[in-house]
From TrEMBL:
Protein name stated in the entry: SDR family oxidoreductase
Protein source organism: Leptospira sarikeiensis
Oxidoreductase is among the record's keywords: yes
Keywords: Oxidoreductase
Pfam families in alphabetical order: adh_short_C2
Family: Belongs to the short-chain dehydrogenases/reductases (SDR) family.
Length: 250
């Protein structure tokens, strides 16, 4: 029986890329997103992957939507092997003007969604000795101004990851990935019209380039592999080395 991966925030960007690449490897992919999934559905059709990718519109930070989506996933594909919590919302505002509603929306979308999906998927992941992969961010460890809600949510994901790993092991492995700058322009509607990245954008990374969705996918694929069952409770930084670079003004 084919393995099944459930991916949130899958309508575009990293989530859409993960959906398409896992499907190409033969996985059944249940993709969930708050939007209409236009980009993902378009690419699914172009790649001839309609029999492997199923899209469900829903809010990953809303319990009734999560419960319903997990039920649909199991009804359609019978089992669940990998959960990738990728749903996310970003708000940049000075803390004195950031509203409670905006703060709550970011926390629910980014962090509460990880709790909810994990809660409702655990019973199925235990049967397959599956894996949970949470998409955090390097912003859990360093910040730009006016990113309090986003940074708090991503820091919470890293902490929730190791907590879940202890609670759910040894049946389920739980890890997180913290991407740095990942260029997702061509993986969303209209992204092809975005300005080109500069030489400085690339050269400031010790790796010599800005990240690509494939960098996140290959890390997720490694963590999804049951052969790597000795790895759990860990956070993997995928940022081209930039968070290790000391930067001084000259």
């Amino acid at each position: 029986m084919k393995k099944t991966v459930f991916i949130t925030g899958a309508g575009q960007g990293i989530g859409a890329f993960l959906s398409l690449e896992f499907a190409k490897l033969g996985y059944h992919v249940f993709s969930m997103d708050l939007g209409d999934g236009k980009y993902l559905l378009q690419k699914t059709s172009e790649e001839g992957l309609e029999d492997r990718i199923y899209f469900q519109s829903g809010n990953a930070g809303k319990e009734e939507d999560v419960e319903k989506s997990v039920e649909v996933c199991i009804r359609k594909f019978s089992q669940l092997d990998v959960l990738i919590n990728n749903a996310g919302k970003f708000v940049s505002k000075p803390v004195e003007t950031l509203s409670w509603e905006e703060w709550s929306q970011v926390l629910h979308s980014n962090l509460s969604s990880v709790f909810l999906l994990s809660k409702y998927c655990v019973q199925y992941l235990k049967k397959t000795k599956g894996s949970i992969i949470n998409i955090a961010s390097t912003r859990a460890f360093q910040s730009e101004p006016n990113t309090e809600a986003y940074s708090a949510s991503k820091g919470g994901i890293v902490s929730l990851t190791h907590s879940l790993a202890i609670s759910l092991g040894p049946e389920i492995r739980v890890n997180s990935i913290s991407p740095g700058w990942i260029d997702v322009r061509q993986y969303r509607i209209g992204g092809e019209n975005s300005p080109e990245l500069s030489l400085l954008d690339h050269s400031q990374h010790p790796s010599g380039r800005v990240g690509e969705p494939g960098d996140v996918f290959r890390t997720a694929l490694f963590l999804a592999d049951p052969e790597n069952k000795f790895i759990t409770g860990q956070n993997f930084i995928v940022d081209g080395g930039i968070t290790k670079r000391m930067i001084y003004e000259e």
